[in-house]
Amino acid sequence: MAVTDAAPIVTRRVGLAESWTLKSYLDNGGYAGLRKALTMSPEQITQEVITSNLLGRGGAGFEAGKKWSMLRQAQPVYLVVNGDESEPATFKDHMLIECDPHQLIEGVVICAYAIGAAQAFIYVRGEFALGLERVQAALNEAYAHGAVGKGIFGSGFDLDVVVHPGAGAYICGEETALIESLEGKRGFPRIKPPFFPAAIGLYGAPTVVNNVETLSNLPWIVENGGASFAALGEGRSTGTRIFSLSGHVNRPGNYEVEMSKTTFRDLVEHYGQGVRLDRQVKAFIPGGASAPWFGPDQLDMPLSQEQVGAAGSMLGSGAVTIMDDTTCMVRAAWRITRFFHRESCGQCTPCREGSGWVEKIMRRIEEGAGREEDLDLLLDVCDNIAPGLSWPPQQTTICVLGPSIPSSVVSGIRMFRDEFLLHIKEGACPHG
Description:
Blueprint: H1 22-27, H2 32-37, H3 42-52, H4 64-69, E1 78-83, H5 92-99, H6 101-115, E2 119-124, H7 129-145, E3 160-165, H8 175-182, E4 207-211, H9 212-216, H10 218-224, H11 226-230, E5 233-234, E6 237-238, E7 240-247, E8 253-258, H12 264-271, E9 281-285, H13 305-310, E10 319-324, H14 329-343, H15 349-366, H16 373-385, H17 401-404, H18 406-426
Parallel strand pairs: 1-2, 1-4, 2-3, 7-10
Antiparallel strand pairs: 5-6, 7-8, 9-10
């Protein structure tokens, strides 16, 4: 594989002077996609998105156009933007909200027009203080410019958009928990069926929930056509995508690359400028803390939804975390487990209780009081949370947070069992 020369789509204005302002956005082609969209029928826009094969960029990777077409035929229809982005090591939506909020707003209006929504909500994680400030300022500018509100750009289409700050709960990244939060209730995921948002969503009405990066692609797709987007990448993994690269690399950051034709090695060695201190990759997480780990032998795997899935993991939220050969794998797995235990909403027993049991056993091993039989005990508890210990996981809970708990622990034991045993035998971390 080689690094391609595909031009960035959603980050092409990031880095420009005051890129978050209306003036900068208009000077660089802003709202041209919306103006074109308003000359098309909603069905034509939906077809362009289906042709593009744009997959949701929030984690699940569901086709955006297909999600729109599944809406129950009823009024009103709502659009909800998932800007919660709570997955550890994921920071791409945060960047888009801060640096190019008008692109998001333009995508929101295009989507709302396509699905027939008159009301949209942009749900942003409460800790994104600067992002909240900028997206609200951009929305005020968009109203004044006529890009949002009554008779948008002289058309007969009306749309009101509300920015809603969340309270910082990881579980609200799950679309039905986000809807519950938006309704003023506790962020508990809903049982599906019947509560698929496309059928019964916000206030009981049909609702589309799309992620920030997903919607930010729409202006480009409308301007250039779905076929142009589909020409980038391969198979189901089309277009470009932002990957949040972090961990033991020399240059962590957000990098927008062409899917399928770029590999994890390209991401690490070209964009990340290699592993720090010229050390070796020991393992990496390919798609956020929920994803099973990969070893260095999988660095040459393309950034492809299909191939990563076939190998037993996922691209998920687009967060790639590199761990070098100084990493304590016990500590890494324990910290991820501790995060999920803390963020469990407590609604489902396997998640509420199982996450605590796994965290306690992992902490015992990390603190030097582990027993050899703890490894089998961990796998047994994990098997009760996600039977079969495979990926995609078997569901025992309402949402996928519960079955995500075993990922790091099972990966750690399967890939580094000797290190776990050494931890137990020596009563301390061999890495100091």
